[in-house]
Amino acid sequence: MNIQTNRLIITKFNVDMAESVHLGSLDDDNRRFVPDEVFETVEDAAETLEFLIGCYSSGKGPQVYPVLLRDQTYIGYVQAIPLGNDGWEIGYHISGAYTGQGYATEAVSAFLPVIMKKLGIGSIKGVCLAENIASVKVLERCGFEKLYEGKGSYQGQERNICKFIFRLESA
After folding, report:
1. How much is the CA Rg of the chain, to the nearest whole Å?
2. Three-state secondary structure readout of 27-56
3. Would you say 24 and 75 are in contact if contact means Cβ atoms under 8 Å apart?
4. What rounded mean pLDDT belongs to the chain?
5. Mean pLDDT within 21-43
6. Short-list 168, 135, 123, CA closest to 149
7. Region 135-164 average pLDDT
8. What's the pTM?
9. CB 75 within 8 A of CB 98
10. What string of DSSP letters covers 109-166?
C-alpha cells in the first residue's frame, strides 16, 4: 500500500511507529468515540501493530494503514474491518492536533478505491455515533449514502448511530 495525495501518504505500519500510534490514540475524541483503539502504553501500541502487520500478509483481519503527512509525521489511520459474512466497514481516526483540516476526508477518499479493489468488494459500510458530527460529515463528503439513523449497537452499547454505505460506480 502506497497511496499519495497532495498532503498525505497512506502506507503500511511498522513497529517503529508504536510511540506515534500510542500518543495519537490518547486524544479526547478517540477516548470518546473509539475507546477500544486507545493504547495506554507504547508496548500496547507495539503489540497491536505487530498483529496488524501480520494481517497484511495473511489477508485476514482488519486492514489498517497509517496516515502520514508528507514529512512522515503520523497523524492517524484508515482501515477496512471485516464484518464476517456481512461485508466490510471503513474506519478512520485523525489525531486531535490535526483535525478540522480535511485530512480524514482526503485519506478516506484516497483509500476507498484502493482498498476496495484489493479486497475485491463493490461496497463498504460506515457506522458512527450520530453525535460524532465530524465523522458523519467525512462519510457524506466521501460519497457514502446514509441508510439509517437511530438506536443501534455501538462498542457493545445501545447508542444513537448512523449507518452508511459506499458503492463503487460500475464503469
Report:
1. 15
2. CHHHHHHCHHHCCCCHHHHHHHHHHHHHHH
3. yes
4. 92
5. 83
6. 135
7. 94
8. 0.90
9. yes
10. HHHHHHHHHHHT-SEEEEEEETT-HHHHHHHHHTTPEEEEEEEEEETTEEEEEEEEEE
Beta bridge mates, 105: none
Residue pair 123/86 in contact (Cβ under 8 Å)? The answer is no
For the record, the C-alpha cell of 38 comes out as 486507545
Instruction: Render pLDDT for 61-76 as a digit per residue (tens, 0 to 9).
Output: 899 999 999 999 999 9
Dihedral sign of CA atoms 60, 157, 154, 19 in order = negative
- Cβ atoms of 8 and 15 within 8 Å: the answer is no
pLDDT band at 86 (very low <50, low <70, confident <90, very high): confident
More confident residue, 90 or 29: 90
Q: Does 40 score more than 70 pLDDT? A: yes
Parallel/antiparallel/unpaired status of strands 145-154 and 157-167: antiparallel
What DSSP line would sit under 77-104, residue for residue?
EEEEEE-GGG-EEEEEEE-GGGTTSSHH
Residue whose C-alpha cell is 496516515: 67
